[in-house]
Amino acid sequence: MTEKQLSAGDKAPAFKLTNQDGVEVDSSKIAGKVIVYFYPAASTPGCTKQACDFRDNLGSLKKLGFTVLGISPDKPAKLKKFVEKEGLNFELLSDESTDVQQAFGVWGKKSMYGKEYMGTIRSTFVIENGKVLNAFYNVKAAGHVEVLRGELGL
């Protein structure tokens, strides 16, 4: 079930997840500003569009001090294939248990073709020093980075 959604000013849930290379990433060890985005599944059309949007804009986001992390319920091996196929230049993290998604309030009821199921609600968070600066739920995959830039005044 979806937990309470996060808002600006909330403490960001801490997490330790495995990246596409099998290396553990500890959120408490990431300094500065972090864009954490949650997406349903690697290599699907919308998720590919969103990941490539971050890939293509990563240089300018890094210049502004941002680290980008993508989180999905996919296994690390699937994430690695996605990174290699799309030439992604940031880390993707595996949350197979969905514990982190639940903590961020992005695991919830979805529907497709009239059928309800539990899944990842495409969402993005801007975090600095463990505090949520911005929380965006139910974001669109296409043009997401441009919308994010507008919201953040970048």
What does this molecule look like?
By secondary structure, the protein is α+β, with helices and mostly antiparallel strands. 29% of the residues lie in helices and 32% in strands. The protein contains 4 helices and 9 strands. The longest helix is centred in the middle third of the chain and has 19 residues, at 45-63.
Summarize this structure briefly:
The chain is α+β, with helices and mostly antiparallel strands and 154 residues long. The chain has helices spanning 45-63, 76-86, 99-104, 144-152, and strands spanning 16-19, 24-26, 33-38, 66-72, 91-94, 107-112, 115-120, 123-128, 131-137.
Average of per-residue pLDDT values: 93
- Number of helices, where a helix is a run of at least 4 consecutive DSSP H or I residues: 4
Characterize the main sheet.
7 strands, mixed
Measured between the Cα atoms of the first and last residue, the distance is 34 Å
Record field, number of beta strands? 9
**How are the strands of the largest sheet arranged?**
2-1-5-4-3-8-9
- The poorly predicted ranges are none
Shape descriptor:
globular
Structural class per helix/strand content? alpha+beta
Helix content: 25-40%
Q: Kindly provide the radius of gyration, computed on alpha-carbon positions and rounded to a whole number of angstroms.
A: 14 Å
Q: Report the β-strand fraction as a percent range.
A: 25-35%
Sequence of secondary-structure elements: EEEHEHEHEEEEH
